[in-house]
Automatic annotation (TrEMBL):
Keywords: Signal. This is Serpin domain-containing protein. The keyword Signal applies. InterPro entries: PZI_serpin_dom (IPR033835), Serpin_CS (IPR023795), Serpin_dom (IPR023796), Serpin_fam (IPR000215), Serpin_sf (IPR036186), Serpin_sf_1 (IPR042178), Serpin_sf_2 (IPR042185).
Amino acid sequence: MKMDIFPLLFRVALLAVSVLGQTTDVEELARMNADFATRLYSKIASSSDDNVAVSTLGATLALATLAAGAGGASRTELLQGIGVASMEKEGEPERIQTLLKQLRVTTAQIQATALFVKQDVKANDTFSNQVKQFYNADVQNVNYANGELAKESIDNYVRTKTGEKVKDVVKNVDPKSIAMLISATFFTGYWLKPFNITFTQEDRFFVNKYNIVQVPMMLHSGKYYLAYDPILKVGILKLPCEDGIAMLVLLPDEDVDYTHVDESMTGEVFRGWVAKLKKTKLEVQLPRFSLKQSNSLSVSLPSLGIREIFGSTADLSGISSDESLKLSEVVQKVTMEVDENGGSVSDASTNLFTSPLPPRLTFNRPFIFIVYHEATKSILYIGRVVDPTKN
Ligand SMILES: *[C@@H]1O[C@H](CO)[C@@H](O)[C@H](O)[C@H]1NC(C)=O
Ligand SMILES: *[C@@H]1O[C@H](CO)[C@@H](O)[C@H](O)[C@H]1NC(C)=O
């Protein structure tokens, strides 16, 4: 009997190694992709003075969907752009797709990705099957000639896929469109430590020197992970959510312009923040907010090195052999609801009236957030709340 246990142990050990190996590959992919995430956010944020919400994972999956049907420089630029090109391996044609699929499945976000092509363009079945398998993306024909109808078809698709969470993805559809890639995501923070609605009160939020608004300010007291970045002069708080997801909320010092943090953020800076977090007792005040943002990626991507796919020499031969096929637009719609809600377990350690009172951290001026998957450090969303009373 004794003899038999060793081969078994050995096999268990092998299994453990291969599981670990797999995790490392996804982590590596997430690490490579983090720079795309921060650059995309910085780019979109720099073109606006308002609230921003970017689904960086949604954009990654949308571009990977395109890459599956692109060739030549179009494909290379896409894979380099999302940071995963160096993950390719000879003889493993589906390696990147498989890793991205693992990332998509582990992070379990509500999202819809679809390529809508003009009615008379027949998409290649191999492509359609592949993007369905790896990215849960759909390829559908739509009658662009009738702009209203096309808009309705796209809207219906997204509503169905997101359980009515995301609506009005496109404002209007150009009847001359040939192919549009739509990516829609919905995030709601189900906090592990919910805010108790009893303590939510109207309070002031300082949008800027001249503009103060009243917002429902939530309150929770408990143990939190907190850090401070003395170089960028920004406080970093972690709010853990269900499903292994967490939100970092970044509060720049009062004398620091949030655009400075927007511009300085990189994958490495993000990982540095996470590594510095330390547990501490704290009272946190965070305004409720709800964001609905549309991002035209065809506007932002060229400056991140993804150009070819939008040009007249784009190679989309894997999507269809139809010569007229051309990518008209890549649109992303992000919907986020951040309120008191959390899982059903309330934090028993919470007692607001124990003394001495812990220090209080109040998000009452513009702040930035990063939603990420803790185990892989994969960035899912990055955004900025300048005025919580707006979408
Ligand atoms: C579809 O794509 C596959 C792989 O790229 C290719 O082998 C096949 O010939 C294409 N089919 C058509 C009908 O173009
Ligand atoms: C919220 O706080 C009130 C007042 O302290 C308390 O009675 C109630 O049980 C709390 N609710 C939850 C869900 O913890």
